[in-house]
Amino acid sequence: QLQLVESGGGLVQPGGSLRLSCVASGFTLETYTIGWFRQAPGKEREGVSCISNSGASANYIGSVKGRFTISRDNAKNTVYLEMNNLKPDDTGVYYCAVPCRVAAPWIDEYDLWGRGTQVTVSS
After folding, report:
1. In this predicted structure, what is the pLDDT of residue 17?
2. CB under 8 Å to 47, separation ≥6 — which residues?
3. Separation CA 73–CA 81 (nearest Å)
4. Mean pLDDT for the stretch of residues 9-34
């Protein structure tokens, strides 16, 4: 069974940090580009970042560039999203998903995603 499982979300104050993890099972993650998208209440889902198969290339949407860092460990079938200087607008459920386009991480053409992990940024 192909599966992605996210973890690491939580409640954090503005300016704080979180590190999300996503573990893939049932397939070899290295086969795919993988990214993160998020969905805030009442809003459409928004692609946030995408990383290449090898991890050599990554890209971000403008609102998170310089604050978020995506990385992957193919030996562990795991992808990460390090989020720093979090803002209330970053609140939402965060999902990892495959595949994605490194050149255009906002494009939504995912075939598989997990159940998500909630990130809440509030004082």
Report:
1. 98
2. 35, 36, 37, 61, 100, 105, 106, 107, 108
3. 12
4. 97
